[in-house]
Specification:
- About 25% of the residues lie in helices and about 45% in strands.
- It is an alpha+beta fold.
- It has a seven-stranded mixed β-sheet with strand order 1-4-5-6-7-2-3.
- A hairpin with a 4-residue loop joins strand 5 and strand 6.
- The chain is globular, with a radius of gyration of 15 Å.
- It starts with a helix and ends in a 9-residue tail after the last strand.
């Protein structure tokens, strides 16, 4: 691989349709619809938590966090897309059941298979302020 190939991703203010569709499911907290975007063996990791592998594992571990929030709103600041990978920078507003509403910065790295299903997702966000007294 030469240097030109290493630097072909370009930031964009346009959010690809597949990303918009994915995050519409997140923002509605529609876990069933969300998981249709992932492969059966998808690896999903949030922050410094252990990654889950597979839809069933993600469903089992995500319930506790999803139970603390009413909805989210993702506002994408920048999106980089190259081949089957994308990097997303966003401000995420969380509306929590405890009455707290807070916006936090997040970065996400996604990889899709050639059939369009996501097989790897890494989300970098610190949600501890949501639970601070």
């Amino acid at each position: 691989m030469n240097d030109t190939q290493l630097h072909t991703a370009r930031p964009s203010n346009e959010v690809p349709a597949w990303v918009t569709e994915l995050y519409a499911c997140f923002d509605k907290l529609d876990l069933d619809a969300l998981l249709t975007h992932f492969s059966e063996d998808a690896r999903i990791r949030f922050g410094n938590a252990e990654p889950t592998v597979g839809k069933d594992a993600f469903r089992a571990t995500s319930g506790a966090f999803l139970g603390t929030i009413r909805c989210t709103i993702h506002r994408f600041i920048q999106v980089w897309e190259h081949d089957e990978s994308a990097v997303l920078i966003a401000d995420v507003t969380y509306d929590c059941h405890n009455g707290r509403t807070m916006s936090l910065p997040a970065a996400t790295v996604l990889h899709r298979r050639t059939d369009g299903l996501i097989d790897d997702m890494q989300v970098f966000v610190d949600v501890t302020p949501l639970f601070a007294p």
